[in-house]
Amino acid sequence: MSMTKAMRRDWDGRARKNALHYIASWQQEWDLDAFLASGEEDYQRLVLPVLQRCGISASGKAMVELGCGVGRMTSSFARRHQRVLALDISAEMLSRARQIHTEGNNVLWVRVDGVDLACLASGSVDFVFSYLVLQHLPNKKLAFDYIQEMLRILRPGGAFLFQFNGSHKPTMNLRGRLAWSVVDALWSSKLVRLSRATASILGLDPATAGRSWRGAAIDPDKISELVRSKSGEIREMSGINTPMTWCCGIKRFFDLAETSRTPSGKERRLWHVGRVI
Ligand SMILES: C[S@@+](CC[C@H](N)C(=O)[O-])C[C@H]1O[C@@H](n2cnc3c(N)ncnc32)[C@H](O)[C@@H]1O
Question: CA dist 64 to 75, 119, 256, Å?
Answer without folding.
Answer: 13, 11, 27
